Amino acid sequence: MASMPGATAPRSVDLFITGGTVVTVDPARRVLAPGAVAIDAGRIVAVGPADEVGSAVAPRQRLDATGKVVFPGLVNTHTHLFQTLLKGLGDDRVLVDWFRQMTGPSAAALTEEDCYHAALAGCLEALRSGTTTITDFMYVHPRPGLSDAVIRAMEEVGIRGVFARGYCDTGIEEGVPPPLVQDLDTILADCERVARQYDGAAGGRIRVRFAPCMIWTVTAESLRAIRALATRLGVGLTMHVAETPFELDNSRRRFGVKDLELLEQLDFLGPDVLAVHCVYLDERDLRILKARQVCVSHNPTSNMYLSSGVAPIPAMLMAGIAVGLASDGPASNNTHNMIQAMKLAALLHKVATRDPTIITAERVLELATIDGARALGLEAEVGSLEPGKRADLMIVDLAHSPYAAPVHHPVSALVYSAIGSEVETVVVDGRLVVREGRATTVDEARVLHAAQAAADGLVERAGTARLRRRPWRSIAF
């Protein structure tokens, strides 16, 4: 819909963005130069050539995007917001050591205030780099109220949030701190509370999922029970799957099969399941994902940071499996910057296959927008610039960036050249949440100061402060 046919007078709209190049990521993958987007009551009402749309609307607010590029907001399918407080503490470790030595002990000391300030800073970072939808996989609950603190921060900063209430119900023998392990009755009761209280909150901006953490931290009994609860309440599921050889070995030892095979045997899998990582999959595993219509969250940065391996994403895409992109948590990235994640995703698969054509900049942008929305079951609402969808978008000034300019191809410039600071304006649900490169919903300086104070206190209480005072090392052992 380029304009509003049949209108005898211009339609009054809340916001009109015009003059820039509009990369729609719609089914036709239109790139409009110059294009325009008209927004009213939180939804896109028209997208098309600037002159056509402009003649059909009477805007209450106008943004001139001349010389800039309008993209759909980025969709982050997996992160851990509490880890915003842990950046730089887990360097040079494989996942199991990273968890046992740093993340687990730190998580066991989390308070409500820690989680609130971490989520506020993490969501701010995400918005500032163009992410409009963020999925928080909150798998640690050493004390009550942490879920509520994260969701409160999401609501305040104005981001679209998918909150995945995670859990561990075993794993002490593998190094999970006892405060992180909950009994099944407690898990189920709080999952139901969170879903009933928050799914659809903030005018629909907040959605809830349930999230068994990873195979070495959960039991088969809890997987059956959480699957049944998710089905009864109509919410999605997400879980770390086949991320490292350690997980596969643990699953074979305890259950006789790999974790994905166990999930298949338990009838856990379905189109409402988002499987995170999926690094160690064979052809049979891909058939299972395809047959059960399971979606996948690709986390290239953390897979490299923790030396976990390279997920067979090109094979998944060829098989027609829905794959969304993600940053993963800032303790294994160490950022929520999805623009950075796009570049690393593209380059990782080119070098892993030694095929420069295996994935394109355009395909990676799809993973970070419409395919990420599809992986979360939100493709009817977000992920592209189309009439009827929620107005989630970013305006990027590539031409004035010393990193991205000069610009020949807007998508290539975003994926391969931009670093995130080029994001000038961000709109979520039709609301300007970032303008002229600054958040409009929170005081950025206060948010960052509070996050630093929370991080300082957390590592001292957790006994992980030694990791920030480590000596210089040119070689790690």
Helix percentage range: 25-40%
Total number of domains: 2
The low-confidence runs, each spanning 5 or more residues with pLDDT under 50, are: none
> What gyration radius follows from the Cα positions, in whole Å?
22 Å
For the largest beta sheet, what order do the strands appear in spatially?
A: 8-9-10-11-12-13-14-15
Provide a count of the helices.
16
Give a written overview of the molecule.
The chain has helices at 50-54, 95-108, 112-128, 146-157, 184-198, 220-233, 245-255, 259-265, 283-291, 300-305, 313-319, 338-353, 361-368, 370-375, 410-417, 444-462, and strands spanning 11-18, 21-23, 31-32, 35-40, 43-49, 57-64, 69-72, 74-79, 131-138, 160-167, 206-212, 236-241, 273-277, 295-298, 323-325, 393-396, 423-428, 431-435, 438-439. The chain is of the alpha/beta class and 477 residues long. The protein has 2 domains: 11-72 and 389-439, Roll (Urease, subunit C, domain 1); 74-375, Metal-dependent hydrolases (TIM Barrel), CATH 3.20.20.140. The longest helix has 19 residues, at 444-462.
Keywords:
alpha/beta; 21% strand; 36% helix; 477 residues; globular; TIM Barrel; 16 helices; seven-stranded mixed β-sheet; 19 strands; Urease, subunit C, domain 1
